[in-house]
From TrEMBL:
Its cofactor is FMN; Mg(2+). It comes from the Bacteria. Residues 185-393 form the DNA/pantothenate metabolism flavoprotein C-terminal domain. GO terms for molecular function: phosphopantothenate--cysteine ligase activity; phosphopantothenoylcysteine decarboxylase activity. SUPFAM superfamilies: CoaB-like (SSF102645), Homo-oligomeric flavin-containing Cys decarboxylases, HFCD (SSF52507). This is Coenzyme A biosynthesis bifunctional protein CoaBC. It comes from Belnapia arida. Pathway: Cofactor biosynthesis; coenzyme A biosynthesis; CoA from (R)-pantothenate: step 3/5; Cofactor biosynthesis; coenzyme A biosynthesis; CoA from (R)-pantothenate: step 2/5.
Amino acid sequence: MRLADRRILLIVSGSISAYKVLELTRLLRKSGAAVTGVLTAGGARFVTREALAGITGQRVHDDLWAAEAEIGHIRLARLPDLVVVAPASANMLARMAQGLADDLAGTILLATRAPVLVAPAMNTAMWEHPATRANMAALTGRGVRVVGPGVGAMAEPESGPGRLAEPAEIHAAMEAILAPEAGPLAGRHALVTSGPTHEPIDPVRYIANRSSGKQGHAIAAALARLGARVTLVAGPVTLPDPPGVTTLHVETAREMLAACEAALPADIAVMAAAVADWRVAREATQKLKKEPGAEAPSLTMALNPDILATISRHARRPSLVIGFAAETEQVVEHAIAKRARKGCDWILANDVSGDVMGGDANRIHLVTDSGVEDWPEMAKAEVAARLAARIAAALG
């Protein structure tokens, strides 16, 4: 049991998904961990002290001043090996980002020296709001780890990102922090790109594509699970940053190339991003106006930097450089030609004429110097796991 005798402080904030923490606590207790529960005022509306205490086997704390009289928030902050906030509501994340300390949970989070893991849970619109994205960027920049959120049906009659990660996923993320296994890629640095790029036309418009980043993010997570230190350079996506991965957020192809070069040296590079081939040569400083009777504006295009070719021929070239070829016809033929043209070691070809971009499944043709492997259609997470295993085998 990898979490045996580990001390976990579990902070439960206000979300309808809070009922899942009872199952999470059961898993932790089964793993031999000691769990201390802290309820915020919102969390106490969904989970009772009695229910959480019954599973943890310990008293649950929910009041700053009562805790001060009996044990003190500093002691609560110093006792655990890991602090977990699950669910972490939008309000909880905002308070953490601001460093507010007017309740027990806030004071513990400011005073603790233990690693902190958050499991966000909220409505999709709240998760995608710029304020929440900024709060998450601030927290991850301070070293806070994240698991989830998942994508699926909400309490409201709608679907999207924002679901609390399942208890088993949170449990696995805790194991990865407290009891990391030395995987086959331990000691290796992997650089991964993901998502689209946005190339501005004017202050409000841009050129983009339909890439969701699901495949690139899954590859980054799969490499991290095998022990690699992963740097993910992500274009504009609505996905959460993968746990255990250093994520750099960029907008344009030129920013992505600069971030990739700054991340070198690396042992592995997987260029999964769907980078825009062209950009507007001269971005307008003001919004282009549609005038009555006027013709549509003419845009002069310029080539974007070729990130895959640049990394493949770089002075600090990774040992293994892998590209992607998103094609709509003659998929394998175009991928073979692209591999030779770019100078990469492997290339993953996929037909994007259907719903691959933005979808959850992919059908891959792996092109190497040994030939072409046709992989069956599978979930993008499975593609990522299979690719990571192949990378580990190739690097010995």
